[in-house]
Amino acid sequence: MGYAAFENLLKQAMGLDAVSIGSAAIEHAVQARMSACKLNDMAAYLDAVRASPSELQTLIEAVVVPETWFFRDREAFSALARMAAEEWLPTHPHGVMRLLSLPCSSGEEPYSMAMALLGAGFPGSRFQIDAVDISARVLTHARRAVYGKNSFRGNHLDFRDRYFSATAHGHHLGDAVQRQVLFHHANLLAPDFLPGEERYDIIFCRNLLIYFDRATQDNAVRVLQRLLKAKGVLFIGPSETGLMLSHDFVSAKVPLAFAFRKIDVAARTVLRVPATVPPAIRSPIRPAPTVVTALSQKQRQGLGKVFAAPRPGALQALLVKPDAWMAEASALADQGRLAEAVKSCEEQMRRQGPSPQGFYLLGLIRDVGGNLPEAAQHYRKALYLDPNHLDSLSHLAFLLEKQGDAKGAQVLRDRVRRAAPMRAP
C-alpha cells in the first residue's frame, strides 16, 4: 500500500491538504512513527493509527512542524496595538477585549499579541487571549514559556529585555505576559469547536488556511466568521487574502498587516488616527509605514478628548517618508488590486533603483496572488541584494516547504538562524 491512505486520514482528522506541505513530509512523518512503534508493515501501522486516538495525535504532531518566532510579520502586531488603543478602548469604557490566536503553535504569536498590547499601555485587566492548537506537544512548550535563540529574530529585540529573564535553558517569559494567555487543545474543524457566536474582537489565524483544500478552507472561514464580533478584525497570512475577499470580508486597509473586517462593518466610515499618539498608548513595535491624510480641524477637536494633538509638522513629516510608496503598493494589494500594486512597485524601483525591501514586497504580492514561481524569484532578488534579509529568507523557506522542497527550506532556515544574531542590536 502507499501513503495515500495516511493523506486521507490526516485530511479527515485535521483538514490537511497533502499538496500544501508535499507528500514527502507526510512520508517522513509516517516512517518516523513506524520506527518509533517498531512496525515494519505500513498496513499494520495504518490499523494502529485508526485504532488509537493517541497515535493519530502523535502522527499529527509529527506532521505539524511549527515555524514561528516572536513578532513574526510585526506589522500585524503594530496594527493590533493601534486598533486596540484607537478604536476599541474609546468605544468600550468597560469590559474585556477578547482575542483568539489559532493555531497558537508554541506560544510565540499569542504572547507577542499580549506584549504588543501591554507595551502600548493597554491594561492587562482589559484583555484576555485564548490560544488554540491541535498539537498537545507544542502547547506544553507554550505553557512552559521558555524559548531559545530561534524564537528571537530580526532587529527589534527590546521586548526580550523587558519581558524575559535569561536562564540556563533559554529565555523565560514573565508572569505579567503569561497570565494574559489561556491555552486550549482543540481542533478548528471539530463540530464542538468553541461553541457560540461573536466571541472575539480580534482573531489571529495566520498561515493555517493555506494547508487546507478549498472545501475545508470554506468551512474554516465560516467558523471564523461565526466567532468574530460584528466590529471585529481578522488577521490572516499574506497568501490567504484572496480567500477572504470571496467570503464577505474586506480589507481593513492596514498596509502589510493583512487584516480584514466583515463587509457590513467595513462599509461604515472609520476615522483613521495618525500613528503619532501619546507615550501612554504608544506601541514599542515599529509601526508599518502609512500614507497619512491630514485631519480636518473638526476631526482633531473630536479626537482631543482621547489623543494628544500631533506636534506641529508631524503629519507633514509622515507624508514625505521615503518608503511611503511601499505602503501605497501594499494597500493596493490588501484590497485585491494586485496588478496595480505590482505596477506601483516596479515604477518606483525604476525611479529609485532596486532595493531588497522592494523585491520582498513584490514577492509578497505575487505570493498573495498565488504566483509562487515569481514570488520565489523576487525573494531571491531581495537576497541577492541583501543575503541576510530575514523576511525574504523566511518567506522563501516557507514557500519552498509548500512546494515539497524540505531540504531547500531547511537550508534557508539555517541561514535565518545565522543571520538573526547579526541583525540584533
Automatic annotation (TrEMBL):
It comes from the Bacteria. SMART domains: MeTrc (SM00138), TPR (SM00028). InterPro entries: Bact_Chemotaxis_MeTrfase (IPR050903), CheR_C (IPR022642), CheR_MeTrfase (IPR000780), SAM-dependent_MTases_sf (IPR029063), TPR-like_helical_dom_sf (IPR011990), TPR_rpt (IPR019734). Pfam families: CheR (PF01739). Residues 1-241 form the CheR-type methyltransferase domain. The keyword S-adenosyl-L-methionine applies. GO terms for biological process: methylation. This is Methyltransferase.
